[in-house]
């Protein structure tokens, strides 16, 4: 039992394909693990026991019928509760969608099903993906498996915690400002934000349309690549989806190397607010890259200092419009419909009751930023900063193949510590935001434990748009070198639950 | 309406004030599917039967632009002599309304697909007035609310409302004029002529049926007055959803009289929307718009920019049909009819059927005669448009052909048309089934003529005596005897021949 849940996705798929394990066995092992630990971790909002077992049975039947199985057939996965699943609850971590059963599957969900991936259930998240700790979920916080009193990152804390607690070998996250990478960093797992447009957004409930991007979460670089390949590709249902072949991510993950690569280090990604242990592990990672044959190049990207401000104008502006549809007319929560109130009153009462504080804060911010008379100063200026950031990246990538940085300035902080201090919370994403604003690709992978608190530190790798394969090439090399150095994957040092 | 509004006479209003108008016309495109999803746009389906996650605005859904919608918009822009944007974006217009699924309308803001054009419209006396076009942009329609339980169908007093989203997402083109100045007392007439001409243009492009009675074309009339001889615009009122040509004229006229009454008594015009009332031609107050409403427009992040290739635009320009006004003037000259007759044919919607009938081989005068006479009468009786009558131009041409060949006379032809309209089949089939052929058998005709002479000796004598006009009575008798199936001209010839009189 223990053995099955500690296997990687690649190993599970191989054993199912060879007949050594059945998909049902694998699924049941993970469901049992969830039963055993999720009360403590609270990674899941909904467990689709029947659906998962049925999917697993179908995989086993395919194998018995002699059909060729895909590279992830029968592998269980934890799905962030932001993707619509036909007939399966989809809450986006909000009360406003409590009880909603979507009538359709997201494109990403269709692709997972087509790849015979077994979806175990839906994971916890900050409401509408707004947050860096999963504390903003309307359904209670998720614990970090390294220390259950600490945050698992956010918004995709449910997905990262599910991986780190061995509830699932694969998970799906979404990254608007760092919501895949920061949770990966603080839980010692791997998370990738693909190039914007690389993975379809159809059926992914929108927070900030121009920044949101779904992506793979896993415990190893290769597993992330296998999942990346399964979910990526052009979707005619999403106009912003890129109509080009998926970068060769699996091939890159199988051939990790940094020899001869130019790796950039941005001077803006350090300084005040960065925990000493994080900086130490990052510097060691840079030294390791050099040892492995990379050339290190110092970069200056002054616009990155403005990323946080620009992000907190663009994302709230788009969210104020995207979330307007939650009006109690067609789906989800409805409050105050007692036959005496107008539609407008019911809408207002429902939004008052159904949205949490952080969501309201951002709707108000965005509404203000888009108001006539303020548009140019706020939304307009933020778009200019966005252009500058894109230009800084473009200039940098003339000199380097990838950029590295700490994923987040600190290790996992205690639940409740920053709950009342939005600015402190927002700073958790200071290294990840520029990538979302520019639309290029980035990965976080473990680079050790901070000496002062023994908690995981993430290394961020950033690549140009549609060069997602570089993340895996570099990531696989770094991962192999660290595992060799540590003697085992980092996650083995986590306390048992 | 029981609301009374102070008005001054139209003449008095124009004696002191100069009207400035702005017309905003929404046209529903006739695309098969909606603007941003694959749902059908067909009318008449059950409520909410033509919806999907995208046009219902379900969480997670995304829009995809309908390429035919963009093509139609460009065609309209070109026909209105507009520049076509090389690059433009959709924008979100944010406001809450229960029949708007996303609580924003996907529209265009400061980057319309077409801008800076004009449309020349011809007034009834032939004068041409140029209406400048500010822009034409793409957007989507909203759903429909039905308020139940109130007295007037309005939201006020209703117990509940029903929402139908079948219309939500149907492509609309909004065409906005620049301020129309200098029309003076003819302003209402210009407004009507503009909307009529625009409708013709839209129809000629085959991008919409533009039926105002079906809501496929809706007009907002913005109007203000300024004292004669001054430049600065006055405060405007916006009369919404004026949905017939006649109403456009009446609404403009009413607002001129109302504004003049307010202004001349020292009052000020409130910037507001107004409702138009078909029954008495009045308008009443709607929403106050003290400041421009804040729709918080921003570029739609879910859609990529629209960048029509120049070659494509030129291809579309080259494929534009002859513009209706040019075509009308050409046809009027070809047919040799007066401006007034042409206008009647236009108002009756007869021009296209007539042209098609001529194309099918009928002489122009015959085609005009049948469409403007018999068919217009039937259409009028049934309250239908000419192009909705169940007869094709080819069938009308065949009737004309049968008349020209002497196989039918006018009376029989009318019966044939009746038969076609009644669904009895093609003209030839109706002729056969109803036995309507002109009696051309000379023997039978001669017998009937002889019988008529024998039965009406007194008349026959008059004719013999030189009163050729009296032959009409004998012709009538023969026609009666042959149940109308004789060629009256030939009958007359035979009668005169028999009586030895020169015709």
Automatic annotation (TrEMBL), chain A:
Domain of life: Bacteria
Short name of one Pfam family: Amidase
Keywords carried by this UniProt record: ATP-binding, Ligase, Nucleotide-binding, Protein biosynthesis
Signal peptide: none
Catalytic residues in the record: 80, 155, 179
EC number: 6.3.5.7
Enzyme's top EC category: ligase
Tagged with keyword Cell membrane: no
Catalytic reaction annotation: L-glutamyl-tRNA(Gln) + L-glutamine + ATP + H2O = L-glutaminyl-tRNA(Gln) + L-glutamate + ADP + phosphate + H(+)
Domain Amidase, first and last residues per copy: 25-471
Statement: the UniProt record of this protein carries the keyword ATP-binding: yes
Family the entry assigns: Belongs to the amidase family. GatA subfamily.
Function (record text): Allows the formation of correctly charged Gln-tRNA(Gln) through the transamidation of misacylated Glu-tRNA(Gln) in organisms which lack glutaminyl-tRNA synthetase. The reaction takes place in the presence of glutamine and ATP through an activated gamma-phospho-Glu-tRNA(Gln).
Subunit structure: Heterotrimer of A, B and C subunits.
PANTHER family, per database record: GLUTAMYL-TRNA(GLN) AMIDOTRANSFERASE SUBUNIT A, TRANSAMIDASE
Protein name (record): Glutamyl-tRNA(Gln) amidotransferase subunit A
Upper lineage: Bacteria, Bacillati, Actinomycetota, Actinomycetes, Kitasatosporales
Gene: gatA
TrEMBL record, chain B:
Stored NCBIfam families: gatB, PRK05477.1-2, PRK05477.1-3, PRK05477.1-4
Reactions listed under catalytic activity: L-aspartyl-tRNA(Asn) + L-glutamine + ATP + H2O = L-asparaginyl-tRNA(Asn) + L-glutamate + ADP + phosphate + 2 H(+); L-glutamyl-tRNA(Gln) + L-glutamine + ATP + H2O = L-glutaminyl-tRNA(Gln) + L-glutamate + ADP + phosphate + H(+)
Subunit details: Heterotrimer of A, B and C subunits.
Gene name linked to the record: gatB
Keyword Manganese: no
Protein name: Aspartyl/glutamyl-tRNA(Asn/Gln) amidotransferase subunit B
EC assignment: 6.3.5.-
The Asn/Gln amidotransferase domain, residue ranges: 352-499
Domain of life from the UniProt record: Bacteria
Species of origin: Streptomyces luteolus
Gene3D superfamilies listed in its UniProt record: 1.10.10.410
Keyword Iron: no
Membrane spanning residue stretches: none
Family the UniProt entry places it in: Belongs to the GatB/GatE family. GatB subfamily.
Annotated keywords: ATP-binding, Ligase, Nucleotide-binding, Protein biosynthesis
Known function: Allows the formation of correctly charged Asn-tRNA(Asn) or Gln-tRNA(Gln) through the transamidation of misacylated Asp-tRNA(Asn) or Glu-tRNA(Gln) in organisms which lack either or both of asparaginyl-tRNA or glutaminyl-tRNA synthetases. The reaction takes place in the presence of glutamine and ATP through an activated phospho-Asp-tRNA(Asn) or phospho-Glu-tRNA(Gln).
């Amino acid at each position: 039992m223990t053995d099955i849940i500690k296997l990687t996705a690649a190993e599970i798929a191989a054993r199912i394909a060879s007949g050594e394990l059945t998909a049902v066995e694998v699924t049941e092992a993970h469901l049992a693990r969830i039963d055993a630990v999720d009360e403590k971790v609270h990674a899941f909002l909904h467990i689709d026991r029947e659906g998962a077992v049925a999917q697993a049975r179908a995989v086993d039947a395919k194998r018995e019928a002699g059909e060729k199985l895909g590279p992830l057939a029968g592998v269980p996965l934890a799905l962030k509760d932001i993707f619509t699943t036909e007939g399966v609850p989809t809450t986006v971590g909000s009360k406003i969608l409590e009880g909603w059963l979507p009538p359709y599957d997201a494109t990403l969900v269709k692709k997972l099903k087509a790849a015979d991936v077994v979806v175990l259930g839906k994971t916890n998240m900050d409401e509408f993906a707004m947050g860096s700790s999963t504390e903003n979920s309307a359904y209670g916080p998720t614990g970090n498996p390294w220390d259950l009193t600490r945050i698992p990152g956010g918004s995709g804390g449910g997905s990262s915690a599910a991986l780190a607690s061995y509830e699932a070998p694969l998970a799906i996250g979404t990254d608007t400002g760092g919501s895949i990478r920061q949770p990966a960093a603080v839980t010692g797992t791997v998370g990738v934000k693909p190039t914007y447009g690389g993975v379809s957004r159809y059926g992914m409930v929108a927070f900030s349309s121009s920044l949101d991007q779904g992506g793979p979460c896993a415990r190893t670089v290769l597993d992330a690549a296998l999942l990346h390949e399964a979910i990526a590709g052009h979707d005619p249902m999403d106009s912003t989806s890129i109509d080009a072949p998926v970068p060769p991510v699996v091939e890159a993950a199988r051939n990790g190397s940094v020899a001869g690569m130019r790796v950039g280090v941005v001077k803006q990604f350090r300084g005040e607010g960065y925990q000493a242990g994080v900086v130490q592990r990052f510097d060691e990672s840079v030294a390791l890259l050099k040892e492995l044959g990379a050339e290190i190049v110092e970069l200056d990207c002054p616009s990155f200092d403005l990323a946080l401000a620009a992000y907190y104008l663009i994302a709230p502006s788009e969210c104020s419009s995207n979330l307007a549809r939650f009006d109690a007319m067609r789906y989800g929560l409805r409050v105050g419909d007692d036959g005496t109130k107008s539609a407008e009153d019911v809408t207002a009462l429902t939004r008052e009751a159904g949205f949490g504080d952080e969501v309201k804060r951002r709707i108000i911010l965005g509404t203000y930023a888009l108001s006539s008379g303020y548009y140019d100063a706020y939304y307009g200026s933020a778009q200019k900063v966005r252009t500058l950031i894109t230009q800084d990246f473009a200039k940098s990538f003339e000199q380097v193949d990838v950029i590295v940085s700490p994923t987040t300035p600190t290790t996992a902080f205690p639940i409740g510590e920053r709950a009342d201090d939005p600015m402190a919370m927002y700073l958790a994403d200071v290294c990840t935001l520029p990538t979302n604003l520019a639309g290029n690709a980035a990965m976080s992978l473990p680079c050790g434990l901070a000496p002062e608190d023994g908690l995981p530190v993430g290394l961020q790798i950033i690549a140009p748009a549609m060069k997602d394969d570089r993340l895996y090439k570099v990531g696989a090399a770094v991962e192999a070198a660290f595992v060799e150095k540590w003697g085992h994957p980092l996650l083995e040092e986590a306390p048992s639950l | 309406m029981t609301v009374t509004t102070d008005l001054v006479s139209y003449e008095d209003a124009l004696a002191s004030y100069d009207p400035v108008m702005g017309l905003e016309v929404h046209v529903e495109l006739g695309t098969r599917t909606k603007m941003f999803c694959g749902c059908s746009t067909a009318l008449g389906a059950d409520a909410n039967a033509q919806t999907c996650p995208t046009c219902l605005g379900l969480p997670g859904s995304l829009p995809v632009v309908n390429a035919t919608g963009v093509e139609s918009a460009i065609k309209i822009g070109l026909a209105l002599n507009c520049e076509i944007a090389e690059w433009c974006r959709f924008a979100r217009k944010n406001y809450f309304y229960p029949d708007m699924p996303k609580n924003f309308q996907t529209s265009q803001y400061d980057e319309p697909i077409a801008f800076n054009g004009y449309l020349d419209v011809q007034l009834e006396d032939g004068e041409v007035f140029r209406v400048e076009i500010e822009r034409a942009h793409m957007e989507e329609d909203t759903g429909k609310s039905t308020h139940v339980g109130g007295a007037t169908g309005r939201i006020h007093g209703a117990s509940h409302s029903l929402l139908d989203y079948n219309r939500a997402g149907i492509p609309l083109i909004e065409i906005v004029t620049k301020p129309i100045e200098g029309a003076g007392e003819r302003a209402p007439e210009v407004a009507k002529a503009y909307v009529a001409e625009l409708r013709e243009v839209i129809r000629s492009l085959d991008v919409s049926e533009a039926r105002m009675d079906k809501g496929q074309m809706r007009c907002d009339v913005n109007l203000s007055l300024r004292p004669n001889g001054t430049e600065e615009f006055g405060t405007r009122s916006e009369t919404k959803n004026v949905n017939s040509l006649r109403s456009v004229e009446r609404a403009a006229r009413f607002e001129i009289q109302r504004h003049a009454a307010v202004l001349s008594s020292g009052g000020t015009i409130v910037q507001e929307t107004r409702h138009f009332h078909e029954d008495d031609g009045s308008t009443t107050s709607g929403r106050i718009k003290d400041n421009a409403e804040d729709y918080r427009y921003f570029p739609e992040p879910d859609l990529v920019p629209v960048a029509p290739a120049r070659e494509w635009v030129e291809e579309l320009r080259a494929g534009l049909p002859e513009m209706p006004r040019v075509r009308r003037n050409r046809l009027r000259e070809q047919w040799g009819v007066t401006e007034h007759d042409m206008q009647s044919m236009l108002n009756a919607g007869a021009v296209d059927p007539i042209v098609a009938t001529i194309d099918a081989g009928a002489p122009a005068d015959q085609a005009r005669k049948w469409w403007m006479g018999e068919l217009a009468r039937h259409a009028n009786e049934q309250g239908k448009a000419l192009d909705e009558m169940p007869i094709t131009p080819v069938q009308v041409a065949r009737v004309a052909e049968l008349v020209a060949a002497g196989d039918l006379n006018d009376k029989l032809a009318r019966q044939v048309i009746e038969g076609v309209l009644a669904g009895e089949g093609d003209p030839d089939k109706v002729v056969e089934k109803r036995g309507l052929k002109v009696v051309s058998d000379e023997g039978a005709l001669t017998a009937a003529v002889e019988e008529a002479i024998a039965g009406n000796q007194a008349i026959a004598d008059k004719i013999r005596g030189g009163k050729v006009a009296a032959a009409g009575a004998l012709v009538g008798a023969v026609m009666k005897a042959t149940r109308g199936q004789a060629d009256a001209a030939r009958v007359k010839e035979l009668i005169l021949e028999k009586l030895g009189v020169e015709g």
